[in-house]
Amino acid sequence: MSKFKHLDLDDRIIIEQSLKVSCSFKAIAKELGKHCTSVSKEVKNHIMVKQTGYLGRAFNNCQYRFSCKKSYICQSESCHHKNCKFCPICSKVCKDYVKETCKLLDKPSYVCNGCDSLNKCSLEKSFYSASYAQKEYELMRSESRSGVNTDENTIKYLDKLISSLILKGQSIHHIYVTNRDAIMCCEKTIYNYIDYKLFLARNIDLTRKVKFRPRKKTYRCFKVDKNCRVGRTYDDFQAFMKENPDTPVVEMDTVEGVKGGKVLLTLHFLEAQFMPAFLRDANTSQSVIDVFNVLYEKLGTTTFQRLFPVILTDNGSEFTNPLKLECDDQNIRRTRIFYCDKSAPQQKGSLENNHEFIRRIVPKGNSFDSFTQEDINLMMSHINSYRRRKLNDQSPISVFSFLYGEEILEKFGVNHIPDAEITLRPTLLKR
Q1: What number of other Cβ atoms are within 10 A of residue 348's Cβ?
Q2: Where are the domains of the chain?
Q3: Beta-bridge partners for 388
Q4: Beta strands in 7-100 (DSSP E)
Q5: I need a surface site. Which of 19, 239, 245, 399 has the fewest CB within 10 A?
Q6: What H or E segment, with its residue span, contains residue 239?
Q7: Structural contact between residues 80 and 165, judged by C-beta atoms closer than 8 angstroms
């Protein structure tokens, strides 16, 4: 039995082929010369979820899909189903929806590859794909070599403990020696956290370090979850949209003023070209989570899920805690997060173009620190009242209110501005 050797693509192909003929993990492990738990972990760690139905029946995982007598709940123009039990969209807005999962997926082999009922099942399916697993493995290996292996709560705890002592003039070594039991990392890690600017204390507060010329080194962003992109890549996004073509997409990004200052979180509804913005004190993942939680509370579960079924964003460190964004405190899924490819802003080009309106009012390099959320709401009211050629000369605010209603529009803090009063110049926010 081979030890300390990672599975390669050939091994994964053997696993996939063996699962199709319902081979046990023990039999697969014997063929590969691995332990059966290694095969089990490999399959469970690289499950690919698909929401597909079967011939003549769309995906529907509601517990009441066979007995349901409701019709046209989704009110979608593209819906051609007389009964909701044949509709893949209605379950997203139905109040009586109860998710059903296949009980066989709780048992080995945990996937549907070799299931005899695959061609007559409308539930959510789990598959093991060799190519998909290899891609996830390579991505995970790459991500493990970047970022910081910790979470924000740990950072806050260490910052509170260490920064106050550094500001008193104590060295990192002295702090580490005298608080060894409370600090669960090495000295080098503490220096790295300060280099990453994760602490209140900075390098200039370290008496000796400022005397040394720093080595040439590229500092990568702080990632809350190194594996955040697994199953959420742009390819995964395209595959999801291919299976769910009628699903509305919201693009998300950050607009910075000056480094270390207040920032904006922008949410761009593609259908309406509507873009609200939310002021945040710092560009952290927690600040994004806080915005989501406030919106979730304001809008309610049903409305939030209707507005934000899919969110496409970039690889900013503030978005690297997708589980907290996708699910609420009760672990109820409220949205899906996908990431653009690195250095590919054109994949959410509509949002990037819309940011030009913000830069007309707050030019690049200017701080947001003096603004309040009311100021930002005023700015976005003017931007969203501006008529667009791609909307057939309608404004985003009018299209959004037509699609979702005036009541929801008000909850975003955006109001209609008469055409003659629209101002897209810095004078709008000058006091």
Answers
A1: 22
A2: 9-61+101-143, 152-211, 234-429
A3: 394
A4: 47-50
A5: 245
A6: helix 234-243
A7: no
Quote the pLDDT of residue 219: 47
Using the predicted structure, report yes or no on whether residue 193 has a pLDDT greater than 50: yes
Q: What is the DSSP letter of 221?
A: P
Q: At 33, phi and psi to the nearest 5?
A: 75, 30
- State which H helix or E strand residue 39 sits in: helix 36-45
Helix (H, G, I), strand (E, B) or coil at 214: coil
Each residue's pLDDT tens digit, 277-313: 999 998 989 899 999 999 999 999 999 999 999 999 9
Task: Tell me the C-alpha distance between 378 and 396, whole Å.
Answer: 15
Q: How many residues does the chain have?
A: 431
The residue among 365, 166, 386, 356 whose CA lies nearest residue 261 is 365
State yes or no: pLDDT of 316 exceeds 80.
yes
What are the CA-CA distances from residue 275 to residues 195, 226, 253, 265 (Å)?
35, 29, 11, 10
The two tokens of residue 377 are 């709401």
What is the third-level CATH fold of 234-429? Nucleotidyltransferase; domain 5 (3.30.420)
Residue the block writes with tokens 């690297």: 320
Average pLDDT on 260-279 reads 95
**Tokens linked to 404:** 């979702």
Q: What is the largest CA-CA distance in the chain?
A: 77
331: left (phi over 0), alpha (psi -120 to 50) or beta: left
Owner of token pair 């110049």: 425
* CB-facing half-sphere around the CA of 105: CA atoms within 13 A: 18
* C-alpha to C-alpha distance for 46 and 42, rounded to whole angstroms: 6
